[in-house]
Amino acid sequence: MAPWPELENAQPDPNKYMEGDTSQQSTTPGKGKDTSQNDSGTPVTKIELLPSYSTVALIEEPTAVEDPWDLPELRDTGIKWSERDTKGKILCVFQGIGKFILLLAFLYFFVCSLDVLSSAFQLVGGKVAGQFFSNNSIMSNPVAGLVIGVLVTVLVQSSSTSSSIIVSMVASSLLTVRAAIPIIMGANIGTSVTNTIVALMQAGDRSEFRRAFAGATVHDFFNWLSVLVLLPLEAATHYLEILTNLVVETFNFKNGEDAPALLKVITDPFTKLIIQLDKKVINQIAMNDEAAKNKSLIKIWCETFTNVTQMNVTVPSPENCTSPSLCWSDGSYTWTIKNVTYKENIAKCQHIFVNSSLPDVAVGIILLLASLLVLCGCLIMIVKLLGSVLRGQVAVVIKKTLNTDFPFPFAWLTGYLAILVGAGMTFIVQSSSVFTSAMTPLIGIGVITIERAYPLTLGSNIGTTTTAILAALASPGNTLRSSLQIALCHFFFNISGILLWYPIPFTRLPIRLAKGLGNISAKYRWFAIFYLIFFFFLTPLAVFGLSLAGWPVLVGVGAPIILVILLVVVLRFLQSRYPRILPRKLQSWDFLPLWMHSLKPWDELIFLLTGCCQTRCCFCCRVCCRACCLLCGCPACCRCSGCCRILEEEQDTPIKAPKAFDNMAMSTEAQDGAPRSQVDGPDTEVTSSSTAL
């Protein structure tokens, strides 16, 4: 029997603790009674007293609140290796090999779906992205350049594509290096949207979603905070332009080989069977080429032959001849010899849409839906396989390897080693989006902590810039200097951000901000979608629209908004740290309407707006009703939901408490669903809906 909860100054009647009373002595002995006979043969009932409990032992310490950011224990619920026979061990080995092969296969299709997703975004918004760059009138505005970099990179889902466009524009003198630096900063922000989309796929489980979304958005916060500090600094001092120009002039760089495409060698054979794009069209649109606006991004001819021949052509006058010796007149015509380039198409590409007559937008939408479906399915299977593989001792070893610091004197070196590992892995896969997106499910299931994922993400930022530097070194001579300077600007921008937000633990604000956003998104999961749309689409579009209206309009609208945001941040800091210096009314946000300082009214509004989508009634027989509810998730309003409830009332042993403990407040649970008291004994089964506490 469970021990009774104690109250101070309580003196229960000890007779109440006796099992068996005088009214039951004449019946068959029950539990807790032994019947024996004395010398005269008279049956005597022995009454067993319950053990006494000290009031000191029942004064429990307050239970520690569970930290939602603690890594879950990946327990091994299967049969232990020592308990298996030979056949079971062989089967277990083959199962492990099969799971590993499946994991690699799903990871391969996951990376391929990211590549196809980038192509789909380019088909849908590539020409629009090129038109953003073609508007050179607002490029001198650093804020407008920043949001253009964000929008273009989000639309094409590739920072390397947007960087190559910037390099082409700088090499063609359509854009200066000074105007290109804010666009590079925006591209650095836009490339982090991919792993944020991947984190949305884990929204089914709140704990996993909290960790995964925080692990994805720590990259966002690092980029936004770095831009918030370094963009005004660059606009005032131009330190990135001066530093990169000094590096380019000091070192005599020569053309080298292109960066090794290690991952592309594996994924290109599959992705090229789905779609191939002619990315030169986006560059031509950015260069204000009118003919390119009517071209399709879908690549048709993969093998062409270009021949240069000399032909006799007519020119308006002798001044247009190539040279005086190659110029002659024939009546009213003036002839000369010119080199004419003739391009001959030899072989078509072998992808699905090579003979399709669909427009680029339609093909892009089809690929977008298909790639998101494959991405979601592969991510779910990767999480399931990792959850089944990372159990027991394997999980302990991996978690210790990834999350343990070096011994005491060198503990500070662990994070910097993680930065190098992240840079090396990103250099191998040649994409920071692929590396961070592959790391997101590991954060969600609890293999990697947020604190360890943060330096790995910073390293991926460095790794993607080293790839760009190698690609710049492989560029032609006329674009070598400009492309190298742009790549170095990207590199030193990330180095400056790391120096700002990593070396001192107090300055690691992205971790705290990402955890706060993770807590909010775990409670209100719709907020994650709002965050994605607001910060990566609506805000850049609004700033871009105001930039088109002119610099005075942008300052007039943006300055009051920035001042209000700064005021809220300062007031929130004072409320949490020094509330006594504030007036009583400003010590909390209660003086504002509820919808201005709480997401609960918005959550109720969204629930009402989406309630019609959740109200689904199924018309099925009573026999299949429960299976139907399990499949379609019928709400409470459905006629089938009533028969899905399990109405099993188990009769538990009635516990008679002493009168001293007869307190209604202690015999029922709290209204808000508080957990049951843990004072029950180890052998006690509690099946009632209320407890003693």
TrEMBL record:
Q: Please give the InterPro entries that the UniProt record associates with this protein.
A: Na/Pi_transpt
Q: Note down the stretches annotated as region Disordered.
A: 1-44, 669-693
Q: Where is the composition biased (Polar residues)?
A: 21-30
> Which residues are listed as membrane-spanning?
90-111, 138-156, 361-387, 408-429, 484-504, 524-547, 553-574
Query: Predominant location of this chain?
Result: membrane
Q: A GO molecular function for this record?
A: sodium:phosphate symporter activity
Q: Can you tell me which family this protein belongs to?
A: Belongs to the SLC34A transporter family.
- Sum up the protein's function in the record's words: Involved in actively transporting phosphate into cells via Na(+) cotransport.
UniProt protein name = Sodium-dependent phosphate transport protein 2B
Q: Top-down, what is the taxonomic lineage of the species of origin? A: Eukaryota, Metazoa, Chordata, Craniata, Vertebrata
The gene behind this protein is: SLC34A2
